Amino acid sequence: MDLIDQMRALATTIPNLKAHNLLRTEEGTKNALVMPFIQALGYNVFDPLEVTPELIADVGTKKGEKVDYAILRDKKPIILMECKIFGTNLREVHASQLYRYFTVTSSRFGILTDGVVYRFYTDLVTPNIMDNDPFFTFDLMDIKDQHIEELKKFSKAMFDEASIISSASSLKYKSLIKDYLNTQSTQPSPEFVRLALQTTSAYGGRLTQGVIDEFVVIVRESFRLFINDQVEARLKSALQRDTTELLAKQDTQPVEAAVEPDAQPAIVTTQDEIEAFFIIKAILRETVDVKRITMRDSQTYCSILLDDNNRRAICRLRFNGTQKYIGVFNDQRAEERIKLTTLDDLYGLKNQLVATVNFYDHKPA
């Protein structure tokens, strides 16, 4: 089983474990989530020469300091792990044990986790002193292909310290800059607004606090328009490519025999249905692997499915009449029809679409 499949399988256990109160202690979190995570990376959690729990070391005046897990190679720690109870806000936790232990071992990597979120640290700023910020974060409830590729580097089969260190700096700074831009896109700071106005010469007057406050809304809206333009451009490119491939495939197929008078009318997938399909894939790309999203047309409606399974309908496109509707599903899995003025209205249904996919994948709301 591929690593991504193992991680998805582990993620599906979380709602049930949570419902039965099995993650309310640190030990419960370790046994149910952390140990399977380590095992999925190829390490034998039952071999203390490979995975040592409660590894002890003397740190300065502190005797008997412990770290929850140490992954070993040639009897030397290569990865240290400090575990917290499931649901702990790791951003507000100082990994004191991990930080202290990091300075007295040969390990270059530390992981702080609550069993779901795994924050990876190294010593990019000062040698042998663990950085305050992680260079990579993996979230079981938000699995992305690119994150799996980074996670594979820590597996037993692929672990290469030098290779990871060489890419860690870039990963860390990309993550920090992305988080910064994400924050500015929704809550632009006065400093960012001032920079935007000065750089673009958008405002020629004196930049008073009142002017800055006025432009906060404009900058936020500009971000939204920019993102929409980028998504639309990618959708048009993908749509054009797929349409070209579809037409090429049709050209190579033999001409069908004439339809009998009593035959069922042909099912025609319209351009609007195809475009809506790609918009929905774009909306859900951060929630699920878009390869799992498929389209299946019928005479009455066009279904957008998860895993090409009729019992896992994400929504239904009812575009056959003059008025377009989309059928989304509520908590009782009953279909609710919503009128669409334009296909752009689909972006406003993100919460319903994400909730439906999470329901099928047993993710918490």
How does the SSE layout of this entry go?
Layout: H1 3-12, H2 14-19, H3 26-40, E1 51-59, E2 62-73, E3 76-83, H4 96-102, E4 109-113, E5 117-121, E6 136-139, H5 145-152, H6 161-186, H7 190-200, H8 209-252, H9 271-284, E7 293-297, E8 302-306, E9 313-318, E10 324-329, E11 335-340, H10 350-360
Parallel strand pairs: 3-4
Antiparallel strand pairs: 1-2, 2-3, 4-5, 5-6, 7-8, 8-9, 9-10, 10-11
Helix pairs in contact: 1-3, 7-8, 8-9
Helix content: 40-55%
**Taking Cα atoms only, what radius of gyration do you get, to the nearest Å?**
26 Å
**What can be said about the biggest beta sheet?**
6 strands, mixed
CATH topology annotation of the largest domain: tt1808, chain A
Strand content: 15-25%
Q: What would the principal axes of the Cα set say about the shape?
A: globular
Number of helices: 10
One letter per element, helices H and strands E, the order comes to HHHEEEHEEEHHHHHEEEEEH
Quickly give the CATH architecture of the largest domain: Alpha-Beta Complex
Contiguous uncertain segments of 5+ residues: none
The strand order across the widest sheet is 1-2-3-4-5-6
Total domain units: 3
Q: Give the C-level CATH assignment of the largest domain.
A: Alpha Beta
Q: Report the average pLDDT across residues.
A: 86
* Category from helices, strands and their pairing: alpha+beta
End-to-end distance: 27 Å
